[in-house]
Amino acid sequence: MKRSSRSSRRDSSMDHNPLLPDGTGAASDETGREERKPAGWKSMPFIIGNEAFERVATNGLTANFMVYLVEQYGMRQMAAATLSNIFSGTSNVAPLLGAFVSDAYWGRFRTLSYASVTTFLGMVVLTLTAAVPQLRPPVAEQSGQRLGPSGTHLAILYLSLALLVLGAAGVRPCSLPFGVDQFDRSTEQGRHGLNSFFNWYYSISTAATVVAMTAVVYIQDSVSWPLGFGVPTALMLLAIILFFAGIRLYVFVPPEGSVFSGVLQVLVAAFRKRKLRLPAPNDAVEQETLLYINQARKSTMVMKLPLTLQFRFLNKAAIVCEGDMKEDGRSADSWKLCSVQQIEEVKCLMRIVPIWASGIICFVALTQQWTLAALQSMKMDRHLGPSFQIPPGSLGIICLITIVLFIPIYDRILVPMATSITGVQGGITLLQRQGAGMAIAIMSMVVAGLVEKKRRDSALAHGGADGSSPLSAMWLAPQLCLMGVAEAFNAVGQVEFYNRQFPEHMQTLAASLFHCGLAGASYLSTFLIAFVQKSTGGQGRASWLDDDINVGRVDYYYYVIAALGVGNLLYFMVCAHLYRYKGTPELEDGCKDIKAVL
């Protein structure tokens, strides 16, 4: 395999990149219309408003879903729980498909539009099952209980859920990245606005979830199911109208083709040229001569990435050999020759995956708090005043309210204070924010263990294994508040990290990766519960997670999760130390990596 020594192989179309500091950052339309500059916050009322109504709608429809299946569809509890878990898990994995379609074919705006309409149709079908008696099982005359669903009833139900999953596949990965597209990241104002956007987006989304889990659920339980489903459906229609109302302000980033084929091309090309010698790191002239520096992207929003030495073996995919180039300076075969830009984008993915994996354990802590805190509260005094009693499932709202209150304080007070001290935009780095969330999550689990021991001792002292503790359920508030702060740091930090560090044309994949982390945490939580039950129970012993919480030792289980969190935090610190932020150039000697130290 002979190398080519021509110096004209560099693609002149990328000599000036509009996203570099001296560029304008204007973005092109998905449909090829005239370019327009990002409108920034002017377009946010439409995008964040759409997200708020969409969250109230979808969460209002699914928050009480298992109760609906049992009461109105006559399903057994375990069958309803299984269907609910499958629906939730599939909805979190489906965004991978939506991200692929968006990045490769449709673009974010078109994918988001189709998915929103699909979600609305799914809501309409599910609302009809509640409003039309013939679409759900009848009530037995003698027992007064609802009969089990027939095949037709299940087919209609599954149709609504399939439409909702398809809608989630497009909405979840595209909503946030489409908002990011509206900021000009080549300007100081655009970058500052983007910092606040992530915080406000997550805060408003969480506030919408609180509304869904309180007001909408109340309508479903206390008024009627048709109205309880009809309100979210109407809100989803309003979200679609609001989204299209801002179309004159939006910028549209065009799709760049299949993300996965681009990754495979780099790996295959690097393997084919594995025996070739790379140019010296310090020799810029040799690099210019022997490497295929760049090729044009369709979108001007794509940042031009410098050549780095991390994962240096991949750089061989850019070595130009005889016959690799066309006369116009482009690659003749993408499976033999890849640009430096393509290679560095693959490196971005390789650097992010270890960081993403560390977030799963943190989400396990979040998941367990929601589930076990409800069980704990059932053996505590849940009264607020003489007559009102807090529903066990509503205690998790304390965590959500904490997020809603803390994020604006963090964005408007703590970030400016930290920025004046550290000089870092955003106050602390994205990795430091995630690490802080992990540390606070560990503290939350330790506090949860201490509170559970106090609750258990009190319950045993006031009635034995079947007794209920006179302690107020508000004793659970500290651990839930800490978990809310942990989520505000880690979850928002992850969202911002993925959207900033993924290549620009892969940001829908970045959003889907966050949801895959949630799905992974759910699956890991299921495994942990089964493992602890099997390893601590049996042979006449009650397991730590016994059905009777007073007999079990949930406090020990909390400490196990805290210990896993400590190990995970140490792993994360190593990954953060080795991580190189996207676009970071090599040090002058060309031999050292720039580290992002937690």
Average predicted local confidence, pLDDT: 81
* Uncertain residue ranges: 5-34, 587-598
Cα distance spanning the termini: 44 Å
The H/E string reads: HHHHHHHHHHHEEHHHHH
- Morphology: globular
Level of helix content? Answer: 55-70%
Provide the structure class. Answer: mainly alpha
What is the number of beta strands? 2
Features:
598 residues, mainly alpha, two-stranded antiparallel ribbon, Major facilitator superfamily (MFS) profile domain-containing protein, transmembrane, MFS_trans_sf, transmembrane helix, POT_fam
Provide structural commentary:
The chain is mainly alpha-helical and 598 residues long. Helix content is 61%, strand content 1%. The chain contains 16 helices and 2 strands. The protein has a two-stranded antiparallel sheet. A hairpin with a 3-residue loop joins β1 and β2 (388-389). α1 runs parallel beside α7. Residues 5-34 and 587-598 have low confidence and may be disordered.
Question: What's the gist of this structure?
Answer:
GO terms for molecular function: transmembrane transporter activity. It is built from 16 helices and 2 strands. With 598 residues, it is an all-alpha fold.
Topology summary:
Blueprint: H1 44-62, H2 65-73, H3 77-93, H4 95-106, H5 108-131, H6 151-180, H7 188-223, H8 225-245, H9 259-272, H10 284-290, H11 340-377, E1 383-384, E2 388-389, H12 397-422, H13 430-461, H14 477-501, H15 507-536, H16 554-578
